[in-house]
Records
---
Amino acid sequence: AQRVTQPEKLLSVFKGAPVELKCNYSYSGSPELFWYVQYSRQRLQLLLRHISRESIKGFTADLNKGETSFHLKKPFAQEEDSAMYYCALISDNAGNMLTFGGGTRLMVKP
Amino acid sequence: DGGITQSPKYLFRKEGQNVTLSCEQNLNHDAMYWYRQDPGQGLRLIYYSQIVNDFQKGDIAEGYSVSREKKESFPLTVTSAQKNPTAFYLCASRGVGLEKLFFGSGTQLSVL
């Protein structure tokens, strides 16, 4: 069974500080990892996906298959980054079932 | 408005009553999903459907039922067997391959 774990429910940092939101996963087959974000009073939306190897809003995430991790990082946090972040996994061995982690609320203080 | 619509925005259920949450998409997506969002527990998958007339149980399917008679529609029924239905329900759809999910704006279900 596939599973996504986000160990921190709340992460609080000051503006300008580096931020790392942790995500660990277990799976069968070949996984695809995503980070979704939900800003206050907005819909859940895709932030980035590992196959794109992109940087969105200054965030990056590297898939570490050895450690089965997909941590989300940003070198300098901004107040507008405050939101709920979800790590998600889809595996070709689980049909198209997309599994989410429990989410981490990021609070960036001025 | 994102191409995926959930209604109603707020729904109240009486004890022993079944209620149905609507989810419609005009994105021509094959796959559709229902998630339940509880504070501190993130998103949990209830049911998902990859094609019309087919659906699979997710992690917390007990007390729920779905149908997929049309590609555009994936309604979720919260039955009286669901003892703790109060939650925020999110519907999502996805196109072919491993494309991103598009989410609806959600339905808040509460028990009277």
---
Amino acid sequence: SAVISQKPSRDICQRGTSLTIQCQVDSQVTMMFWYRQQPGQSLTLIATANQGSEATYESGFVIDKFPISRPNLTFSTLTVSNMSPEDSSIYLCSVGERGGTYNTQYFGPGTRLTVL
Amino acid sequence: GQQLNQSPQSMFIQEGEDVSMNCTSSSIFNTWLWYKQDPGEGPVLLIALYKAGELTSNGRLTAQFGITRKDSFLNISASIPSDVGIYFCAGQSYSGGSNYKLTFGKGTLLTVNP
């Protein structure tokens, strides 16, 4: 499986600021995804990062709040904009490996964000 | 939207005991995945199931894709202290194009007493 790294691993930010999280994969992948995991909760998909086009957002998530870039097949960024304490979560990128209609997803180590 | 019911929510067992957890859904899934998450880490894929009825093992782990495609279970045999963590099930439904959305269960917190 692909090796996935994320930067930063953790950060503490002030309310109203923005943070950009980077996701780097050691091989070209077709599908990249961004998830949020709120404290003590499960994972919720934010968006699918599409290479060369706009990201596809899930219900409840909007581009203005979570802009995503995917400039190539090995890299993506997620920005958490105008942060509030409710944005304190772990943000995870994942990559999809596909065989036919099957999709197996592998996750990066996550970015632990605390907003004061 | 699709929801997964994962149970139990938590388990406290003695080292050496066997563990079983399961997920059920009202929706059909094409793939079932089981992940383990340690504190401060991302989820690590344990087992992937692709066909209804499929039974797959990975060391002390065994998982099955329910015949109705609406459920899956994960068994851990002869538990050891490093099995401690949160186990998540995830179902994937394919709806064409690039839509491979995963829906996650709420997780099972496993504690193993040495």
